[in-house]
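Shift notes (night). Ran Beta-lysine 5,6-aminomutase beta subunit while the centrifuge was going.
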Amino acid sequence: MSIVRPYGDTTGDGMVQMSFTLPVPHDKRAEGAAIQLANKMGMDPALVVHAKPMGPDFTFFVVYGPVNHLVDTSKVEVIERDYPLLSPKDANLAIRKGLRRRLTVVGACIGTDAHTVGIDAIMNIKGFAGEKGLEYYRELKVVNLGAQVAVPELVRRAKAEKADAILVSQVVTQREAHVLNTKEMSAAFREAYSEDARPVLVAGGPRFTEAMAGELGVDRVFGRGTTPGEVASYLVDALVTRRKHTPSRRSA
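Came back to this:
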């Protein structure tokens, strides 16, 4: 079946739950405003199931109710993984045979972003979701610069380390900071390197989607739930399988 309706209490009842914040103090009028908004979004009748003050002038809401919209799953567009998943052993072997040296990866949270959970989950040996991080791979040289790294510093360290790949994590999204920071990063690397010498640029974060790579100017985007093995497999595919290694990539 390609046409589906949201499920809440019973199959096909169309019930959905959503949350949002309104810039109003928490009172009965605020709850009425939340219901009005939900009604305008197609949820009718809407029920406020949670309301919490966020300081004196804001209120956070969770509302619940039915919608009439249907979803056609046959028209959903997704970006499928176009590279094979490799075990750490196979990834190490591919790098050793293909590059005949270690593959260097430099990672950081750029701008004012101080949230290192994402970049650490991918790069640190403890890893994520039962998988070891990139530090576990013998044929990877991993340089984790941590939080709040300025873009010029990232470029400088990338050149000093002769990086093959750059991993940038962005969690802070207020005022599209994650988009602006990543665009600044990609522009800086394209200015600092010739195209054939530029490191592979990878961005990751919970508010990114794979389809944003072109908009951001990076080679690949990883969203929420990405595991270290997926990132390692992509790097092997991009830098070993699909590209012939040339001295210019290391000497730039």
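Residues 177-192 form the longest helix (16 residues). The radius of gyration is 22 Å.
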